[in-house]
Design goal:
Structural class: alpha/beta
Order of helices and strands: EHHHHHEHEHHEHE
Strand order of the largest sheet: 3-2-1-4-5
Radius of gyration: 17 Å
Number of domains: 2
CATH architecture of the largest domain: 3-Layer(aba) Sandwich
Distance between the termini: 9 Å
Strand content: 5-15%
Largest sheet: 5 strands, parallel
Length: about 200
């Protein structure tokens, strides 16, 4: 995974830096979850863009409803813990230098926020892996954290960028530099008016 370099952000000092989570701050590998679901009996054509995955990320369905929808795709009965373990398989690690970089950016005068398409099962797992102290240290790097399932919106819907601007009191979208690894998210954010950094 690419590492975030503070030198890439030097010209944006004083701006809001809004980070995506997956593959920007934490390593993820969705193929690991697909393979794990296949060991539970999922068909080879299962993909993580199915409607119920999106519904889970906008909070339209609960964790129990998500597991029920996923269980309907499996040939064999699976406990909640097995489904959660397979779903969390895509989460790898937050590189050790990430916290250092985020703290350094704060010290240099940047204002940081996090904007992630995610769900409560993944966030609970991140909290478990980091522990209360580690997750607290991570969360304190940001003035605000925006999780899609809490907002009822997900990228690339431009409404999510407008909602973030309102919450942060941003009056001009150009005050934001948005860092994301997804081309559709970058395109929609740029069309909305945020400056963008395509993190690949």
């Amino acid at each position: 995974m690419r590492r975030l370099k503070t030198s890439e952000l030097a010209s944006h000092q004083g701006s809001w830096l809004i980070f995506d989570f997956g593959n920007v701050l934490i390593e993820i590998d969705p193929t690991r979850s697909i393979k794990a679901f296949q060991t539970l009996g999922a068909q080879a054509d299962l993909h993580l863009d199915a409607d119920f995955f999106h519904d889970f990320e906008t909070g339209a369905i609960t964790a129990a409803e998500f597991r029920r929808a996923l269980r309907s795709q499996l040939r064999w009965a699976s406990a909640d813990s097995s489904i959660d373990r397979a779903w969390n398989a895509l989460l790898l690690e937050i590189p050790p230098k990430t916290l250092h970089v985020l703290r350094s950016l704060r010290a240099q005068g940047y204002r940081l926020a996090l904007l992630s398409n995610t769900n409560p099962i993944h966030i609970d797992e991140v909290r478990r892996r980091l522990g209360p102290f580690g997750y607290g240290e991570f969360a304190r790097c940001f003035e605000r954290i925006f999780y899609s399932y809490e907002m009822g919106l997900r990228k690339p819907d431009p409404a999510i960028y407008a909602a973030v601007d309102r919450e942060l009191g941003i009056t001009s979208p150009a005050e934001v530099l948005f860092i994301d690894d997804n081309a559709a998210n970058i395109a929609s954010a740029a069309a909305y008016g945020w400056r963008t950094l395509y993190f690949i």
